[in-house]
Amino acid sequence: MIRTMKASLLLVLYLAADHSLALSSRQCTVGQLAGDRLMIGKYTVEELIDISKAKIKRVDDRQTPATFPHATECADYSSSRCHNYNEVEPRRWVGGFLPGLFMQFYDWDISRCDLEDADAWLERFDKRIGDLSEEPTREGTHDVGFKVFYSYGHGYISTGNEDWYEPIVQGAHTLALRYSDTVGAIKSWDTENYRYPTNQFKWPVIIDNMMNLEMMLWVSEKTGNQTLWDMAVQHSKTTIRDLYRSDSCTWHVANYDGDNGELLGQYSQPQGLNMTSIWTRGVAFGIHGFTTVYKWTKEEEFLSQAIKTADCFISELEKCCENDYVPLFDFQDTEKRPDTSAGAIAASGFIELSTFVEAEQSVKYVLAADRILKGLAGSKYMGDEDMDSILVHGMGDFPVKDIDVGLIYGDYFFVEALTRFAALEGDR
Ligand SMILES: *[C@@H]1O[C@H](CO)[C@@H](O)[C@H](O)[C@H]1NC(C)=O
Ligand SMILES: *[C@@H]1O[C@H](CO)[C@@H](O)[C@H](O)[C@H]1NC(C)=O
Fold it and tell me: Signal sequence: where (predicted)?
């Protein structure tokens, strides 16, 4: 703990927030990462990454071509029939996370000069990425950012392989088709075919959408298209105005009249406990998303929103989950059901946020991330060896499905948080 605090005091000097961007295929900067000495509970970061790699390799080796893992099959942890990840179509929102994990491991290996291992991850990426080829132009959902930027985006940024550039540009313009000047936001879902209560929403914007904006900002910078930039910035401002509760935690949904832009209502379902509760993964998306938008735009308003969101998350954690800092799926859930994915997303966001704030605040966010990661890496929340997922006890889609399971995005953001933490420490 002490060591972490000392490190954090130097965080204001930490310029490697974009560390993944700086890597190119044959550069390696051994010694930059503190993975072999930074402890998370009883493991080093390196050990946790190795455990994660072994699981993800196994998942990939077994996966039916043209499908992607989403959630483990069921919640009976003692039964082996529940241990495997299910297989879903590329069009589902999670398609980018498996290739995204490959690229995270690739970056990790490159930074340690394990070039052969890195190549093996790149090969896996290359083999799978074609399965996502229809996603950059698939209209009908805001999830194009999750699917395209976390996969093609990461692949191109880490390797410079030109094959993976155009899909990112296409993805950003596909997302732009969903932007409305009248509302000042990107429409998240076309709800006609959704189940209740989502089908009641006319023109919904959800907090998750903050995670899709980096693709627009990146493409804007690359291509000089200012419109994409302005859309992402305005969407963020509208989100601040309409997707925040008075306590600075988030709503899940803001519903609009698309014809005149009028805000019709704010809700915590479909995914929260009820319509007025606090859906935790949404709050985590707010922390992570606003930190990212600030990283690109350097607009103070977005940093301050990331901080407010982070502080609400921490104060709710103190109330519900002081023991291990693993959040409930909804902060108001009296049955105390956890969501490890929300913890992983928040931890990753906290670490990034810690690089943009003053020393004292920085310490607070590093410590929060540290506590969450220790909780997640404890025996209660790490999947056993024969379990596909790295983390267990995630809440996918309450109350309908994927309840108390492993989730590929929980795994993705857990690995992201670990590698960010190691880079932060290693940068001293
Ligand atoms: C910039 O992007 C927007 C949104 O996709 C598009 O409508 C516009 O045509 C683009 N502008 C140029 C000059 O390509
Ligand atoms: C939501 O659940 C919380 C916690 O049980 C409760 O306090 C609140 O009144 C509920 N709200 C609605 C609209 O049911």
Answer: 1-22
Q: For 157-209, where are the E strands, in sequence order?
A: 179-180, 185-186, 203-206
User: Could you tell me which CATH class the domain 2-426 is placed in?
Assistant: mainly alpha
What does the pLDDT look like over 305-330, one tens digit per residue?
999 999 999 999 999 999 999 999 99
186 falls in which pLDDT band (50, 70, 90)? very high
Please state the domain extents for the chain: 2-426
Ligand 1 centroid, distance to 243 Cα (angstroms): 27
Measured distance CA(191)–CA(7) in Å, rounded: 47
**pTM, whole model, 2 decimals?**
0.93
Which residue ranges have their beta carbon within 6 Å of ligand 1? 173, 176, 225, 227-228
User: How many angstroms does the Cα of residue 99 sit away from the middle of ligand 2?
Assistant: 39
Ligand 2 center from residue 276 Cα (angstroms): 7
Pocket test for ligand 1, best of 168, 169, 173 (most atoms within 8 A of CB): 173
